[in-house]
Amino acid sequence: MAQAVSPNNTTAANRRRSRTKFTEDQLKILINAFNQKPYPSYATKQRLALEINTEESRIQIWFQNRRARHRFQKRSEPEEHLESSQDEDHPEEKIQSRGDRRCRTSYTSSQLHTLIEAFMNNPYPGIDSRQQLAIEIGVPESRIQIWFQNRRSRCHVQRKREPDEALEQRQDQGKISEVRVQGIETTQNGTDLTSDSYSSGARTRW
DNA sequence: GCGTAATCTAATCAACA
DNA sequence: TGTTGATTAGATTACGC
């Protein structure tokens, strides 16, 4: 998978968060919680965060990685070695956790303006930039990270769709031949994730 | 070098205007 | 109903021992 930040290009602006080192006691609590519920609700994650004195976002990442490791083990290990209680697919937990999500963050137009400006400047901000933005607009850093993820993702989708849409438009207008889509493709083909064009066709809220 | 936290994309769910 | 924040799986990167 393509990564935006090359290993040798680490600057203050794209530096990763330093690794969290969980203590034995913290891990005991986390593992115990995981064994009970691999898909904890937001309230549970918050409670755990409080209990082991860390951020809720770290709990979320820990559970994500833990589930991934479990799935991996499940695939690679012979079936008789599996611990039955923990290796179910846990569909009921998944369903339940959907009912207790974090409240949707609602950004003001000025917050969005700041985010978009930052995105145009750098679509892959490191921990320092994200924290700075978080302070600036008064939103947790984890929400900034999610916002950038969604924004990048939707930019990719939009860019994939644009040539098709241009074609459809031409067909709708009954304009035959000579109209070139090339221009659109070439200008969008670079690394310009920063374009706000992905929302330009639709209604914008900012 | 290994274990694993952090990060990424893509798909999907779901709140809200 | 479309937009977009939240969550997930799965893959990958890279930190810290």
TrEMBL record:
Please indicate which superkingdom the organism of origin belongs to.
Answer: Eukaryota
Biased composition annotated in UniProt, kind: Basic and acidic residues: 74-103, 160-178
SUPFAM superfamilies (alphabetical):
Homeodomain-like
Sorted alphabetically, which PROSITE patterns does this protein's record hold? HOMEOBOX_2
User: Looking at the UniProt feature table, which residue ranges are given for the DNA-binding region?
Assistant: 15-74, 100-159
* Protein location: Nucleus
Q: Which GO terms describe its molecular function?
A: DNA-binding transcription factor activity, RNA polymerase II-specific; RNA polymerase II transcription regulatory region sequence-specific DNA binding
- One biological process term in Gene Ontology: regulation of transcription by RNA polymerase II
Does this UniProt record's set of keywords contain tRNA processing?
no
Q: Which CDD domains match?
A: homeodomain
Q: Start and end of every Homeobox domain? A: 13-73, 98-158
Region annotation Disordered: residue ranges? 1-21, 72-106, 159-206
Write one Pfam family the protein is assigned to. Homeodomain
Q: Name one GO cellular component term.
A: nucleus
In this chain, composition skew of type Polar residues spans 184-206
Among its keywords, does the record have Hydrolase? no
Broad class of the protein's primary localization: nucleus
Task: Print the keywords alphabetically.
Answer: DNA-binding, Homeobox, Nucleus, Repeat
Q: State what protein this is by name.
A: Double homeobox A
Q: From what organism does this protein derive? A: Equus caballus (Horse)
Lineage here is: Eukaryota, Metazoa, Chordata, Craniata, Vertebrata
